[in-house]
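[Automated response] Your request has been received and processed.

Submitted sequence:
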Amino acid sequence: MENDDIKILVVDDEPNSTQILRKILVKKGYSVTEENDSVKAKKLINENFYEIIISDLQMPEVDGMDLLKMKPIDSIFIMITGYGSVLSAVESMKNGAFDYINKPFNLDEFTLKVEKAVEKIKMTKKILDLKTIIEDSYPFKNIIGTSKKMLEVFDFINKISKVNVNVLIEGQSGTGKELVARAIHQSSDRKAQQFIAINCSAIPENLLESELFGHVKGAFTGATEIQKGVFEQADGGTLFLDEIAEMPYNLQAKLLRVIENWEVKSLGSDKIKKIDVRLISATNQNLKEFIRQKKFREDLYFRLSTFSISLPPLSERISDIPLIVSHYLKVLSAKFDKNFSITAGALDALLKHKWSGNVRELENVLEQSAIITMDETIDIKHFNFLNLSDSIEDTVKNTSDISLDELEKRYIIRVLQDNDWNKAKVSQILKIDRKTLYKKIKVYNILENKI
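Generated structure:
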């Protein structure tokens, strides 16, 4: 997008002001319209699309705030305010202005603010173009990104999906490990067969072996019927073992035997069954450190990680945030039968936030905002997030004006996200029973996004 593609409307009832600003902008190569009658400016905005609208605040009949309220959502608005009129400037920003400039003009400052707006316009267009490329080019549409690190992930998926080897996916909670596992499956020759996923940390230790390998009737107390394990259920397809680091050490040896021979024996049975399974495992832990601490078998690690990939946290691919936001707003629009959009200020806030909960936290914040907003526009005032890297002590210091219930809600969200939404584990950490935890989740309307 070239400068002459960007149309700018300059509105001020003082002709000298519009002439000066127009002269500066034309020199930069922009297409500029100047108007000294705010009523006519209103008509121009209704009948034309301007990427940038620059308007004085104080004008007869129609003032700058009126023009700001009627601007298209894709236009950027810069307000001109009287020198020292801080309250007016703040009010305009609250109502959706991108920035403001004081009179008398500092022309260098004015130029920089316009260039910043132009940069944002060009970035938005680039994002839309890249999003189209992604949607047209990749079969795994729910994994969004054009950053170098995400392109490496896409390349890994394309290369590894056709090879029948075990894969280990490492990465922080919320980075999309299961999405990558599903993408490998969907891009493989096994895509017509089952994809079975279980979370090793969510199943009690005494039941995990049965869940993995199955059992026959009477194998143990409560085994009233035959049950196939997930290895047998996934025969011919793909099995995804999430949070593999949480698997009990004694059970790791049994898993190793299955992987070595691709044979499984149900609890209480003497029959050995051959299986054909693509195994993908995932963890948010440092398995090499677990091996050093004798918490994880080294031989099992090598079996699981024939090929491995580490997913980047959201903090290392900030440039992907606008794409993810655009994608998820479409998802939310379909879910709630609306047409959600987001203000420039809100997007800037998302770009600056420390996403300790990664993409899952971002999607959670957006869904809560979509529920809170009274219309279809998500603004910064709708956000209710807590930097998970902040300590609770810092949170208390910085939020003395919020209620105890709100602090409790934020803390519960933090612990849930830190523990990958494993409610059994979280209830133990919080020292409350699971029933109470579920009740608080319902009361506080805490939404879980599995990605």
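Summary generated for your ticket: Residues 7 and 48 are 10 Å apart (CA to CA). The domain at 3-130 is CATH 3.40.50.2300 (Rossmann fold).
If you did not submit this request, please reply to this message.
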